[in-house]
Structure formats: structure tokens, C-alpha cells
Automatic annotation (TrEMBL), chain A:
Pathway: Amino-acid biosynthesis; L-tryptophan biosynthesis; L-tryptophan from chorismate: step 5/5
The UniProt record lists the keyword Lyase: yes
Entry protein name: Tryptophan synthase beta chain
Signal peptide annotation: none
Pfam families, per the entry: PALP
Domain Tryptophan synthase beta chain-like PALP: 49-376
EC class: lyase
Summary of the function given for this chain in its UniProt record: The beta subunit is responsible for the synthesis of L-tryptophan from indole and L-serine.
One cellular component (GO) term of this entry: cytoplasm
Organism: Methanohalophilus halophilus
Any one Gene Ontology molecular-function term assigned to this protein's record: tryptophan synthase activity
Assembly behavior: Tetramer of two alpha and two beta chains.
From TrEMBL, chain B:
Protein name: Tryptophan synthase alpha chain
Active-site residues from the entry: E48 (proton acceptor), D59 (proton acceptor)
Record Pfam families: Trp_syntA (PF00290)
EC number: 4.2.1.20
InterPro entries, per database record: Aldolase_TIM, RibuloseP-bd_barrel, Trp_synthase_alpha_AS, Trp_synthase_suA
Involved pathway(s): Amino-acid biosynthesis; L-tryptophan biosynthesis; L-tryptophan from chorismate: step 5/5
Quaternary structure annotation from Swiss-Prot or TrEMBL: Tetramer of two alpha and two beta chains.
NCBIfam families cross-referenced by the UniProt entry: trpA
Gene: trpA
Amino acid sequence: MNHYYGDYGGQYVPEILMPPLQELEEAYEQYKADPEFTSQLNDYLENYAGRSTPLYYAKNMSRKYGLKIYLKREDLVHGGAHKLNNTLGQALLAKFMGKKRLIAETGAGQHGTATAMVGAKLGFETMVYMGSKDVKRQLPNVYRMKLMGTEVVSVDTGSKTMKDAINEALRDWVTNVGDTHYLIGSVVGPYPFPKIVRDFQSVIGREVKEQVMKVEGRYPDSIVACAGGGSNAMGIFYPFLDDEVNLFAVEAGGEKLREDDKIAYHSASLATGEEGILHGARTKVLQNRDGQILESTSVAAGLDYAGVGPELARLSETGRVKPCYITDMEALEAFHELSRLEGIIPALESSHAIAYVMKMADSGILGDTVVINLSGRGDKDLQTIMDMED
Amino acid sequence: MRISQKFEELKDKNEKALIAYVCAGDPDPDTTPSIVNALVEAGADIIELGLPFSDPVADGPTIQAATCRAIEAGMNTERYFELIKGLEVNVPLICMTYYNLIYRQGSENFVKKCVDAGISGLIIPDLPLHEADELIEICKEKGIDNIFLVAPNTSDQRLDAIGSKSSGFIYVVSKLGVTGEGENISSNVAGLLDKINSNLPKAVGFGISNRKHVEEMVAAGADAVIVGSALVNIIASGDNIIPRLKEITKDLKEGCR
């Protein structure tokens, strides 16, 4: 079985995790073609998550920026983000595998919330690890998780963000491999996670294909998605990989692109990271000369991560996906712009994708028809933004 | 000194090996040599010296905190090798670290530096056997041992593969979990030790913190025991660390005789 995307990917994990990774790989290959599994998953996606989500023509924004701009409304998925597509898939898989307990990491809290939902829905004991810095800036999501019966563990080590939450979740998994499924929230981690998460998120791109054909009679010139770990990006890009569509992965440029020995004041690992090993995969990583992982920063907790999915690293290396970045201030501006122009409050993560389209509207590189993956809604970010604008 | 030579010596004396882990640079790079000297003087047969990594996923809170202290105190890859070159101890030294630090330097370059510094073996807990072909080849060429871990849930097939590819010794993880002091050692270790079909010495680690544990592991058939967190906790306390490290090391070594 090939566990790599070019040179990226692999399984760089403690020996204890080899049996559960193999078990997961075999179970996934078995159940993804199982009619009972797919029928249950499709039912949940339709009736619980609320799929399909609309492809919305943003008329006011289109007029202002001189492009035809469509928004793929993943913010309308139950829970307010695309994350539920993957958690439903993985939790159902865990159920079919006979697991009793789910653990997850979360940055912005969207994946944690989506895990809490499926935990409640499918009857799992659920525990979510979250960096203490993220707990503070994403309190509404912390409360939502608790409401649904999930235990939220605040992680106080390292940079106190998603990187450290993943470390803690991996330690938990190492200790409880028998009955626990680690529900990874992005296209990161050891194989087969990048593939499983991509496949479950690809529902986004498959729907866009049909929807855009119906209204435009052709594929868009460009698709733009934000990328932290990269799950919404891979989800919308993957079905278009063989088509003539420009794919832009917008990372968090943070306050500005500078770095010292311990902190990168951004999270742009595709655009500026170097090859390394983080959280079980060989990928693009923010690291210092020695290979110590740098603390990333971003106004968007969900993008605040020092690595990126290995398949996205590969697609970026071959030039199929174009990595780019947007600063915190540009993302904030886009947050306000979409709210005012369309009456849609985007997540700070998705605001990066919107900001890129605003910034590049006149450049010609986007073509004239653009789909932005609106990966989540901004309710969770209101406190952060109010605090910043105080 | 080669690891195999040390095990031969101990065999002649009918003793098991005490392998002591400490993190290089904890609490600061200047103190590490006196810590290592104290451990060797008190009876440690092999020293496993951690090269700290920012994200040590196989380690529990004790060693993770040590890693943080060491990095904060200025430990880095270059200083690590300098520090090791400066040690004057006649026991095998093992570098325990995570794969990114090796990958970043380039495996060939890293292994060469290990050899130049006098390191006899490598333990990389996040590098499972099937990702290690290149490193195994390089280590073989340069004459240093590549020590792989086996866990209680490792399949028989992988046990055989690890047994045939590992060198120096086989690191037997006593429990499902991360490093850290434990109250009790799993009673299944003997069964795991029996299943490993290899001529290499078997060293049991994770959760071993006192003489009773050591004696249990020796009785279960271990050729060596690895003690880390119990030592690191003494260092973390900052209190009278050299005499206390000597005292516990002597006691642990008694359990190996």
C-alpha cells in the first residue's frame, strides 16, 4: 500500500500506533464500499448535516469586484462549518469498527464541536483536546462542546494551540488504542488519515461540480479555499484535480511574515515551510534550522498550525495547487466586507479565502468565475473581533 | 564503546544492564556532564541521552517538561554533539531523539556527527521500522546501532521483522502509553519478552521507576531495564540532585544483579 503523495505522507508514529493505523486502513477500505455504511452516511449528511449546501452567487460582491463570485456555503452545514462532513464519516466508521470512545483535537473549536455532535448523536464517550490559548479565544465553541456532553481538555504545553492539542490527543490514543478512535480533523497526520479526511470532505467539491455546471454550464476558472491543515481545501479541490481549474490555497500570513528562532508570526507552512516530519507525516513544516517546530500564529485559530496536509504539500510542489497567504488585517477587512455586502458573517478562517479574492480581483489571475469555499460561519469569532476592535 | 561489548561484559558478570535516560541540557547544558558522570559512577551501564525535540509525542509530561527546560536553556543539535564529545565516560552512549531533527540535518550527516561524537546507538520513537530503511543502511555502514521499539500490541509479524532489523538491543515498551513513572508494571511483559524471537538483548522501558520494578523485569526475562522519568523527576526537583541521582541509580543497579 502506498502511504505517500510523492515524497510527502508516511507514518512517523510510535510503534504502538501501527496496529490501530493498519486496522483503520483496512476498515476504511472495507466499509467505504459497504452499502450499509454509505447509505447511513448519506442519510446523516442529508438529514442531519443538511447537505447539499447551496452554491450561492454573491451578486453584490461580484459587482463590486468585477468577477462572478460564488460562495460554497459550508457555513450552513449543521454546526456552522464543513467539519461535520468528516466527523460523520469517521464516527460512523469508528462505530462500524466497534470503538466506544472518540478523541479529537481542535483549534478554532469547529472540529471539536462537530466531533461533540457526532459523539452525542452516535453514542460515543467523547473527549476533545484544545490548546489553552484557543480555549480562551473560542469560548462559545467550548461551551457548545460541553453542552453536547463532551469533555474539553485544555492543553497548556508548548504554544498552547492546535499543534499541542494534537500532541496530547496522540498521547491519549497511544494509551487507549483498544477502544478509542482518534478522529483527526484535518488532512494531516499519519496515513490513512490524510486520505480518509480528504475523501469525506470531497463531498464539497463533488457538489460544486454539479452545481456550477447547472448555473454556468462550465467549471469555474478558479477555486479559492483557506488552508491550515487543509481539509476544506482538499475537500473542494480534490474532485477538480484533473480539470482545468486554478486552485488557490490561502494560508494565514499572520501579523507579517517574519520569524525568530521560536515563533513564526504566521502559519504559512505551504508557502514558507520546509520539508519535515510533524504529527506522523512528512510534509511542509514551520521549523528552525535544527528542526524544532516553530510556534505558528494567526488571528484565525483554525489556521494556526505549523504543518499542512501532505497531499496539499505535494500538489503545491507540482504546481497544481497555488499556495498564497493573507495577513490578519486583510482577513479582518474581508470579514467586514462580506458581512456588509452579502449579509453573511464568515469565519475568520474563510475570511482569508475571501480576502485573497478581493486582493487579486484586478490581477487577472483568477479568471472571471470564482468559487470561494466559505468553510465556516463567523459567530464563534465575534468575541475575538470585538476584543481586537475595542 | 559498542553496546554489544557492554552486554558481553555484563553477561560474564551475570548482571543485567541498567540503562539510564536523561535529557541533554536539562536543567542546563553545563550541568549535564556532572549528571552523566554521577549516573555512570553509581552503576548505570549505558546512558541514553535525549536530544530534545519541541513535540515529543511518545513522552509523558515528565520528559516533555525536561525537553522544554533543555530547549529553553539553549540546548540544540550542535551543542548536543559538543556536549557529548566533552563527556569522559567509558560506557555506551545512545542518542534518543525524534525523527525530524535527524531528517532536517540529513540522515547521513546526522549519523556521521553521532559517530564523531562517540555515540553508539540511536533510538527514534517516532520512526517505525517500515520508514527506516535509509537510516538503517547508513547506521550499518557507519557502525552504530539502530534500536527499534516493540510494544505490547505489536503483531508477531512485525516482532520478527523488528527482531531481525534492530541492532544493539530491542527496546521493549512495557505498556500501552507514553513514558512516565508508574505504580505497577504490566504483568504481560514476560509474555511479550518470550514472543520476541531474536538473539539481541531485550531492554524493558516505560514506567520503570524503582528497584522492585527492576527486579520484576529481570525475573520476567529482561536483559536490561531503562529508567528515565524517575531520574528526570529528581533533576526537575532541583534539590540536591547529584547525590539523589547516585542513590537511586545504585539501588536500581542492585536490582540488576
